[in-house]
């Protein structure tokens, strides 16, 4: 007679997985019907996670972490600066279209930020952190499959994702053209976002593909398949942002990986490129042309024409900006640089906070890597840094915060970096060893270097 295993109760990781799945799989153009502003289901879930996080901070029985954490602090500061900018912008008259956009934008940006807080404090163990990361990989693989079908056959599966209570804000899917190829967007809002989302998932998929065999798992082929699919998705997006992000992520990984894996990665990458050249003739040449002809590309020159106009706006509102969401592309022209857009709309305070969001997120992961002696944890922390680097660089090449899926991944990964740091420190405490402080670590390093052999 066998006894049934007890079912695991839903926890913060379970809710985070649902949040990630809804944010990536539900097409970005679908919003909730009957609401005056364009709100997506993921936004509602993000606000719900934030509400649960707030309630859990009022009690000690729900298992939510409390106390200082680098990622938690930077997320909280980011929220404060967004509220400060919103208050500064709306204290005086705003045109109705700008006020409506500001109202919707503050809701959407707060939703992803509080979701990041909930993930940082609510995902407590290494196993649950990995569950969320695996969910990101699997959901992104599904998105990449949709994009590849759009690219190869002009088959847009998002047209059949008709969900009750939702309606599209645009007529159909988003498929553009570049050279002789289609540029798919899958469920995202633009081919650039599609490419960046796939590029973010590639280091995560590579991590699980390379480590599955080392950990004795039988799922190595599944992760290699996910890696191949999201890699193809990044390439067929025909996006410079995706290619630059992949290059930076590869640099981060190759610096931190052991020598044997570096060789394996280079061989796998070379084989993949050769295969892509034969399967999709002309694709690699088109990707090369994106950078070879960059000086004659009108899309590049158009990105620099906004500097003269924006400099005037920055001088008028230097510290808190003119208001997030108030610089409407249809009215003032697009800003294809999130750092510039943040400077215009959130001022220097908002810009420093956005930069700190990526820097502190990477720091939390690197801090967890330095504290842990577990090879798998150290590799996972490096992978988080690589994925965050894709988004940090992407923010310089397109208006990242205007696209919901890329923005969601940014805050989820920052939250998971903080959660990983908490988990590593909790392991130190459980083993009776206090984790060394940053000052102690630096002092020990300097002391060791000063000792003569």
Describe the overall structure.
- InterPro entries: O-antigen_ligase-rel_domated, WaaL-like.
- It is a multi-pass membrane protein.
- Its main location: membrane.
- Helices cover about 70% and strands about 5% of the residues.
- It is mainly α.
- It has one domain.
Whole-number total of structural domains: 1
| Percentage of residues in DSSP E strands | under 5%
How confident overall, as mean pLDDT?
89
Strand order of the largest sheet: 1-2
Largest sheet properties: 2 strands, antiparallel
Distance between the termini: 65 Å
Assign an overall shape. globular
Percent helix among the residues? 55-70%
Order of helices and strands: HEHHHHEEEHHHHHHHHHHHH
Structural class: mainly alpha
How large is the count of helical segments? 17
Any low-confidence stretches, pLDDT <50, length ≥5? 448-453
Using only CA atoms, what is the Rg?
22 Å
Number of strands: 4
InterPro entries: O-antigen_ligase-rel_domated (IPR007016), WaaL-like (IPR051533)
Protein name: O-antigen ligase-related domain-containing protein
Keywords: Membrane, Transmembrane, Transmembrane helix
Subcellular location: Membrane
Write the SSE topology.
Layout: H1 12-25, E1 30-32, H2 41-56, H3 70-90, H4 96-122, H5 126-153, E2 166-168, E3 176-178, E4 181-183, H6 191-214, H7 220-236, H8 240-256, H9 259-279, H10 283-292, H11 298-304, H12 307-316, H13 329-332, H14 338-371, H15 375-394, H16 404-430, H17 438-450
Antiparallel strand pairs: 1-2, 3-4
């Amino acid at each position: 007679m066998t006894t049934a295993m007890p079912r695991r109760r839903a926890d913060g990781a379970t809710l985070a997985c649902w949040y990630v799945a809804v944010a990536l799989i539900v097409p970005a153009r679908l919003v909730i019907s009957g609401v005056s502003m364009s709100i997506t289901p993921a936004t509602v879930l993000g606000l719900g996670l934030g509400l649960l996080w707030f309630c859990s901070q009022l009690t000690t029985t729900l298992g939510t972490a409390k106390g200082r954490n680098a990622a938690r602090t930077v997320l909280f500061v980011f929220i404060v600066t967004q509220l400060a900018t919103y208050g500064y912008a709306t204290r005086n008259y705003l045109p109705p279209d700008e006020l409506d956009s500001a109202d919707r934008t503050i809701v959407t940006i707060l939703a992803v930020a509080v979701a990041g807080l909930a993930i940082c404090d609510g995902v407590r163990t290494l196993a649950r952190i990995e569950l969320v990361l695996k969910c990101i990989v699997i959901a992104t693989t599904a998105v990449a499959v949709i994009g590849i079908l759009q690219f190869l056959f002009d088959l847009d599966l998002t047209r059949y994702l008709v969900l009750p209570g939702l309606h599209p804000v645009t007529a159909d899917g988003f498929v553009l053209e570049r050279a002789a190829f289609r540029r798919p967007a899958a469920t995202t809002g633009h081919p650039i976002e599609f490419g960046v989302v796939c590029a973010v998932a590639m280091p995560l998929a590579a991590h699980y593909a390379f480590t599955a065999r080392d950990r004795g798992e039988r799922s190595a082929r599944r992760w290699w398949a996910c890696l191949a699919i999201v890699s193809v998705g990044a390439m067929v997006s025909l996006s410079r942002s995706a290619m630059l992000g992949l290059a930076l992520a590869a640099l981060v990984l190759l610096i931190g990986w052991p020598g044997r894996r570096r060789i394996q990665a280079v061989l796998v990458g070379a084989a993949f490129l050769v295969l892509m050249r034969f399967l999709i003739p002309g694709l690699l040449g088109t990707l090369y042309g994106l950078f070879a002809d960059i000086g004659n590309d009108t899309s590049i020159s158009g990105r620099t024409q906004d500097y003269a106009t924006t400099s005037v706006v920055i001088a008028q509102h230097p510290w808190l900006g003119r208001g997030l969401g108030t610089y409407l592309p249809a009215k003032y022209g697009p800003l294809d640089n999130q750092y510039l857009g943040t400077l215009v709309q959130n001022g220097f305070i908002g810009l420093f906070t956005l930069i700190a969001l990526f820097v502190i997120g990477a720091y939390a992961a690197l801090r967890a890597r330095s504290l842990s002696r577990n090879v798998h944890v150290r590799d996972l922390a490096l992978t988080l840094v690589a994925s965050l680097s894709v988004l940090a660089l992407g923010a310089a090449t397109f208006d990242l915060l205007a696209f919901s899926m890329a923005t969601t991944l940014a805050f989820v990964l920052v939250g998971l970096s903080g959660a990983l740091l908490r988990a590593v420190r909790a392991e130190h405490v459980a083993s009776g060893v206090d984790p060394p402080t940053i000052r102690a670590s630096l002092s020990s390093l300097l002391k060791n270097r000063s000792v003569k052999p």
